[in-house]
Amino acid sequence: MKSLEELKALKEKMQSKMGIRNDDNASARVVIGMATCGIAAGAKPVMKAFTDEIARRGLNNVAISQTGCIGICQYEPVVEVYVGNEEKVTYVKMTPDKVARVVNEHLVNGNVVDEYTIGQSKL
Amino acid sequence: MHELSLNILDVAQNSVSAGAKLIEISAIEDTKRALLVLSIKDNGCGMDEDTVRNVCDPFFTTRTTRKVGLGLPFLKQTAEQTGGSFLIESQVGKGTLVRAEYHTDSIDCMPLGDICSTISCLVTLNPDIDFKFTSVKDDKEFIFTTMEVREILGEDIALNEPAVAAFVEEYLKENSNH
Questions:
Q1: Domains of chain B
Q2: Helix, strand or coil for residue B140?
Q3: Which pLDDT tens digit goes with each residue over A15-34?
Q4: How many C-beta atoms lie closer than 10 Å to residue B158's C-beta?
């Protein structure tokens, strides 16, 4: 059974990694719509997929945060991605399956996954 | 919403918007009496009497961006459709308590679902707010607070670090009664 004692080991591991964190890296932000509409459409598993994928890849310059309803409920789950000073990209109708591609292509390699964006949505 | 834990996630966002510093969420179940009580308590800005009276009307909201507010009406409905009850108490400047009671033997009682992932999701999204989660099933009690996690991690490590979030979710899943 996991105990909070194990957090101490995690803390030491994280502190040793902190030294190599480079804050000059362009930081990125993933903002997930977590209002009633977003949650009902499946925002929670999408958020978990982002957290897991970012942890798995050890990306320490990406922050995950939330926003309320931005008024396009029919396109939820909606995820906005901000990379550095670039214009925000709005991904719509996200699913956990789409997350790995967004992390890999957009957050890591800097290429927007056009087909998931609101501009490409045929709905 | 297909599980109650999603309603909890939704309604807890109200506490976040109310500027709460501490949000207490509990799931207390008595399996013999087939009763489940879910509650969300915060120390946010609270509401005046008029707002509390209207808050379960789906066409009432304090937001200016939209004309509907569905979170609380949905939660109320999930409880009342099982023959259970719903209560909301609030005091300006002190905070709000939302309490929903379910008859779990009712055919209309939705499953509680993954409450542990709801809690870890809230912690990850709101690393500066403290959360207390109480999970009671009959005589088994489990309490988790972010205060104890913060104490171990110190000030340098935020609660929304992905590795911490993953730990919290796993810890809750292994220890919680729900």
A1: 4-175 (3.30.565.10)
A2: strand
A3: 776 655 444 454 899 999 99
A4: 14
Q: List domains and CATH numbers for chain A.
A: 25-120 (3.40.30.10)
* Cα–Cα distance, A102 to A97 (Å, whole number): 10
In this predicted structure, the answer to whether residue B134 has a pLDDT above a threshold of 70 is yes
CB contact under 8 A, B13 and A68: yes
Question: What are φ and ψ of residue A42, in 5° steps?
Answer: 110, 30
Task: Decide: residue B48, CB within 10 A, 0-12 exposed, 13-18 middle, 19+ buried.
Answer: exposed
The predicted-structure confidence for B22-46, as pLDDT tens digits, reads as follows: 999 999 999 999 999 999 999 999 9
Instruction: Identify the pLDDT of residue B101.
Output: 98
Q: Do the chains contact at A34 and B9, CB–CB below 8 Å?
A: yes
Q: Region B12-19: what's the mean pLDDT?
A: 92
Residues of A with CB below 8 A from B164's CB? 7, 10, 14
Determine the average pLDDT of the residues in B116-141.
Answer: 95
d(CA B7, CA B78): 9
Mutation target for A interface from B67, B140, B152: give the one with most A CBs within 10 A.
B152
Answer for the pair B134, B142: CB distance below 8 angstroms, yes or no. yes
Give the tokens for residue B79: 């409880």
Distance CA A83, CA A73 (A): 24
Residue with tokens 């009664």: B177
Provide φ and ψ at B176, rounded to 5°.
Answer: -70, 155
